[in-house]
Amino acid sequence: MKLHTLKPATGSTKTNKRLGRGQGSGGSTAGRGHKGAQSRSGYHKKIGFEGGQMPLQRRVPKFGFKNNNKIYFKPINLDALEELATKIKASTISVQLMRDNGIVGKSDQVKILGRGELKSKISVEAHAFSATATKAIETAGGSATIVK
């Protein structure tokens, strides 16, 4: 087998018919049927149009509520903080440090939650803390600081 001998399997590729390009291209209407908006140039079908059938976005009922003022937090548990602190040997963990280590995204708001246990004394900076997380951090000898 050589590169110059490679070709697709027979029947797997098909050339498109060049419509509207002379006598041999499928007749005078070029595959557009007779008359009507779809046969004319410049025709554009509306997005979601289903030939007069009720479109999907109108068949499916509306439901739910999206609160534009809600703040969505990225939850980080104490066991993840403990793992990060032992990995980089840090006594202070800030939101920027978490971003640099890939724990949270660039624009994430961080909330520290209380799953796991904290063995090392670390001071943590985040946007929010749960009550159990604050208690666990302070019993380990660290501090929980809320950042804006």
From the alpha carbons, calculate the radius of gyration and give it in angstroms.
31 Å
Number of strand elements:
6
The percent range for strand residues is: 5-15%
Number of helices: 4
What portion of residues is helical?
10-25%
Q: Given the C-alpha coordinates, what overall shape results? A: elongated
Order of helices and strands: HEHEHEEEHE
Textual characterization of the structure:
This protein is an alpha/beta fold and 148 residues long. The chain is 20% helix and 15% strand. It has 4 helices and 6 strands. The strands form 2 sheets. It has a 3-stranded parallel sheet with strand order 1-3-5. A 3-stranded parallel sheet has the order 2-4-6. The model has no long low-confidence stretch (mean pLDDT 92).
At a glance:
The chain is of the alpha/beta class and 148 residues long. 20% of the residues lie in helices and 15% in strands. It has a three-stranded parallel β-sheet with strand order 1-3-5.
